[in-house]
Amino acid sequence: MAIQADNGSEYMKHFDAALERLGITHYFSHPRCPQENTRVERKIQTTKQEVWAFRGGHDLEQLNEITREWNETYNVYRPHQSLGHQTPMAFLKSWYDSSERRDHVSTM
Question: Exposed (0-12), middle (13-18) or buried (19+): which is 41, by Cβ within 10 Å?
Answer without folding.
Answer: middle
